[in-house]
Amino acid sequence: MKLTLDNDIAVIEKISSVPTILEAVTELTGLRFVCIARVTSNSWHSCAVLDKLNFGLKVGDPLDVATTLCDEVRETNAAIIIDSVRDSEQYCDHRTPQMYGFQSYFSIPLYRPSGEYFGTLCGLDPEKADLTRLATRNTLILFAELISRQLASEVVLRDTKTALSDEKEASKLREQFIAMLGHDIRTPLSTLSNGVEILRQKAPAALTPLLDVMKRSVLRIASMVDDVTDFTRGRMGGGISLNLRHETNLDRLLQHPVDELRNVYPQRQILTNFPQGLALFCDAPRLGQLLSNLLKNAIVHGSDSEPVFVNVKETNGIFELSVTNSGQPIPKEIQAQLFKPFWQSPTGNASQGLGLGLFIASEIALSHGGTLEVASSDAATTFTYRARTAAFVERRESTRLL
């Protein structure tokens, strides 16, 4: 049993999106304890935990399965979602809420790719919560489906590596699977996003904070899907696609990702210097994506008490965009790894993302014929993108024609 449990925990730990999903669930529902549990007919063990309640369970800890509602989920293959135990005819006198002291609760089944029951995505809180609302319920079910799909992904990757001796072919199949997964996820995400917007138009003002949380959760997952899709397209030979054009108001276009991240991280100070009327031959949305990835990296890894600086300038026909943050310097050996896909610092937090942001930023830079470099010291860390301006390119072309 111990070996099997260790393998199950390892599979969940390999899914880098799990911490982000658990955090998104807490933001969506307000529940302060959320976990992924491995459930069998005679055992219950936690595989991943986000505990803001000091509930006390750690990864690998057991509960008596007979005392849990997850056991009912396993037997019925149906989710249990409770807004308020005291208001529930079915569970108001149930021993499990009394034993563990919760009012709001959900438990949604997870499955292996074979269809075999794996366990549950579950959460609880001593206070009641609005969990049975259709949009909230559908979002929780979507999160469970994403985890089940990732369980399938891990099995497919393991089987592919075993079946194929050619590592290059194994990598190609893996990337095709990720591309298909990203495509499949877009449809339910689009449905959720549209549903949130419809609710925003019709729901009372009191629901606006919840709808804002749901919108942010959808956008976070969509961003992860976009990163994986860009990565897969690049690895399969398509490269980062560009729609190049002459942009004459680049300052306003670059302001958009800054404003978005100010909304996501209202406690962080972001200072910008965008000269007006700067012209560049580029794909502005992709350049905004590059800036967003660099800025998010600076916010996550930089000092919480110091501002992040975004500076844009033109010098001798060279466009330069830099993002600077204070904090611990990046060692030289780590700097060499920063732009590799899926790379994360061993001292970092797995919930910070998939490890694709800097890789995709560097690919966008290369697709534009530019460069992306990092310089780090005790004073500051700066990522700098450089490319030729539109005026420089035009001068060079007119010189060739003379």
TrEMBL record:
Annotated Histidine kinase domain residues: 180-391
InterPro entries found in the cross-reference section: BphY/WalK/GraS-like, GAF, GAF-like_dom_sf, HATPase_C_sf, HATPase_dom, His_kinase_dom, HisK_dim/P_dom, HisK_dim/P_sf
Keywords: Kinase, Phosphoprotein, Transferase
Record EC number: 2.7.13.3
GO molecular function: phosphorelay response regulator activity; phosphorelay sensor kinase activity; protein kinase activator activity
Keyword check for Cell inner membrane: no
GO biological process: osmosensory signaling via phosphorelay pathway
Keyword Iron-sulfur: no
Pfam families: GAF, HATPase_c, HisKA
Catalyzed reactions: ATP + protein L-histidine = ADP + protein N-phospho-L-histidine
Name the UniProt record assigns to this protein: histidine kinase
Organism whose genome encodes this protein: Duganella guangzhouensis
